[in-house]
Design goal:
By secondary structure, the protein is α/β, with parallel strands linked by helices. The protein has 16 helices and 16 strands. The structure holds adenosine-5'-diphosphate and magnesium ion (MG).
């Protein structure tokens, strides 16, 4: 195809200022082209900068560096012809369905009659006929999101941006909406030329997209492009569909691990590392599940996500926490327990706690640091703010709070140190 692209994103970088002067690099070297007739998926974990990229594309924000062109012209403000569907439906509760949809058109300065006619057509198209005068609270989640779609489509945008549009819906409702959307798109009934779909759901991406760009985290960048050469409508039970889903799982795990240096993978991380809020129950649960039959110490991550009824987005951080603690290694779409991991999975509660405390002190520098500070103080206690301040030199206030909460919950379990929610004091449980 040699037509000019609808959209061209070149070498885009986005960084946000952070307290203390350092910056948070969210996107770097992002390239993306959307051509007429395409649905392109952006697949990545939460926090990888997907929503940020959509905001830049729609002109709601400007990138720190790089270029975004829409139909050959730089995007330098909210672009007419680019519309967005959000995860949270963002409807006005005091307006009817018709009024909510018409709102999309009011900025265009069309005659009232045309506004109404176009809104009614969009409502009809998306399957909301008969609900014109209903209020959002009278509708189910799925119907509300249909209003979200109608409001975006009514302007006849060239490009439709969708930011995890199904993730607030239950499984069946989401599937219906996907199917209806793809049917309308395939039949050429949608007044749009191209779509960018952001999702963290691999199957959704494979069901809907012509091309899938896999996004890495920290900073967000496109690490792999995968073409989906399956005819629409697609069937989840088609072996080719399953094979592609598996391949993407592997890409997403392998790429992440490859990108970590050997040092990061095996030597632990610095005090300034953001820690995920992963509960001991999840850590133990995953170790036990991999230890038990049928896995016996080594499991395929896609099988495991299905078995544990988790989303990949939920499983990855748990698997990575096991890896950080040397309980497991993650490679090529597999998770394998280390000898330590097997011991941990097999231990009784007391031994598990002891083992966990040792792993924390060895592999989580922040835990070791806090323990050292508490050991050295005569009072064996320190206010939480003492450590929050320190963390905020390395990360946002929000991330510092999360990291401290994570380390506190792990330390409590391992009885490495205690935390009193009322006084906000950390202290040694059993001072030596
Ligand atoms: P995703 O949509 O992939 O989950 P986001 O684009 O929402 O990711 O966020 C990526 C990162 O950028 C997060 O760490 C988030 O906290 C940060 N971020 C997003 N917008 C801002 C902003 N306006 N100021 C500071 N940080 C931001
Ligand atoms: Mg997002």
């Amino acid at each position: 195809m040699d037509t000019a692209p609808l959209l061209d994103v070149q070498n885009v970088r986005q960084a946000f200022p952070r307290a203390g002067g350092a910056e948070l690099l969210v996107l770097e070297g992002v390239n993306l082209t959307l051509r007429e007739g395409e649905i392109v998926g952006l697949l990545g974990r939460s926090g990888s900068g997907k929503s940020t990229l959509l905001r830049l594309i729609s002109g709601l924000a400007q990138p720190s560096a790089g270029n975004i062109t829409y139909l050959g012209k730089p995007v330098d403000g909210p672009a007419e012809g680019i519309a967005m569907v959000f995860q949270s439906f963002a409807l006005f509760p005091w307006l009817t369905v018709l009024e909510n949809v018409q709102l999309g058109l009011e900025a265009l300065g069309l005659p009232t009659k045309e506004i109404r006619a176009r809104a009614l057509a969009a409502i009809d198209l998306i399957g909301l006929d008969g609900y014109e005068s209903a209020y959002p609270r009278e509708l189910s989640g799925g119907m509300r999101q249909r209003v979200g779609f109608a409001r975006a489509l009514v302007v006849h945008p060239n490009i439709l941006l969708m930011d995890e549009p199904m993730s607030a819906l239950d499984v069946l409702t989401a599937e219906n909406l996907r199917t209806d959307f793809i049917d309308l798109w395939s039949e050429g009934q949608l007044p749009i030329k191209g779509v960018i779909l952001v999702t963290h759901n691999i199957e959704e991406a494979v069901l809907m997209c012509d091309r899938i760009l896999i996004f890495s985290t920290n900073p967000g960048r496109v690490v792999t492009e995968i073409k989906v050469n399956l005819p629409q409508p697609r069937d989840r039970n088609d072996p080719d569909f399953g094979a592609l889903v598996d391949r993407i799982y592997v890409e997403m795990t392998a790429k992440r691990v490859e990108r970590m240096t050997r040092h990061e993978r095996f030597a632990g991380t610095g005090i300034g590392t953001v820690l995920p809020r992963i509960s001991i129950n999840l850590i133990s649960g995953l170790a036990e599940a991999v230890f038990a039959a049928p896995y016996n110490g080594k499991a395929d991550l896609p099988d495991l996500t299905a078995d544990l009824q988790l989303e990949i987005d939920e499983l990855f951080p748990v698997a990575e926490t096991l890896q950080m603690l040397r309980l497991a290694e993650v490679e090529g779409g597999d998770i394998r327990l280390t000898d330590l991991g097997k011991r941990f999975a097999n231990a009784d509660l007391e031994e598990r706690k002891r083992l966990f405390a040792r792993l924390l002190q060895t592999y989580v520098p922040l835990a070791a640091h806090i323990r050292r500070v508490l050991d050295e103080r005569a009072s064996h206690a320190a206010p939480k703010s003492r450590f929050l301040d320190e963390l905020e030199d390395h990360m946002s206030a929000e991330a510092a709070e999360q990291t401290l909460r994570a380390v506190v919950s792990w330390a409590r379990y391992g009885e490495l140190f205690a935390y009193d929610d009322e006084t906000s004091m950390l202290s040694l449980e059993n001072p030596a």
